[in-house]
Amino acid sequence: MKGEVVMSKLNQLAKYLVYSYENHAAARFGDNELKLQALLYFAQRECLVVVGEPLFEESFEGWEEGPVLPELHFFFEEGYDPFEPLEMKKLTEREQFILDRIVFDYGHYEGWYLADLARREASWRNSRTAIPAEETEPNFLELADIREDAKKVRLYDTLFDVYLDELEEFEGAVLEP
Hints:
This protein is mainly α. It has one domain (2-166). It is 45% helix and 6% strand. Strands 1-2 form a two-stranded antiparallel ribbon. Strands 3-4 form a two-stranded antiparallel ribbon. Helix 2 packs across helix 3 and helix 5 (122-128) packs antiparallel against helix 6 (143-150).
């Protein structure tokens, strides 16, 4: 029963990501599973950057094409129903923020380009190092490796048009009478 609840949450996150993309890009997402998988990898990494915790429990496998959540393989082919705005309460504001941020940062790229970016990550490369050419069973990406990849991400604030690590520390009160 617990696995079904977790699977449901992952499906909700994937459906919301597609919904967010279609609303912000004013374009259809289509059935691009490669793009979905890559965007969810970047969402997991981004969540580790922003709050220090994973967005979801499931583990990525290091497939030749890039990081893949096996639970979402054939996501669009197996009875995909679009996200309904009434389902918004099933996701936290943090989850929505992370996924919206990923759509803004990466949504305009094609799936093959995003997969290529993900394959440059140490977490994916580490998952592929011990796989002989004839081996068909992929290894999992370690969460610790994704955390290391997350340490290399510079957060950007679009409101102030600045990387957060470039902001100077404030001394004293910002608003003094």
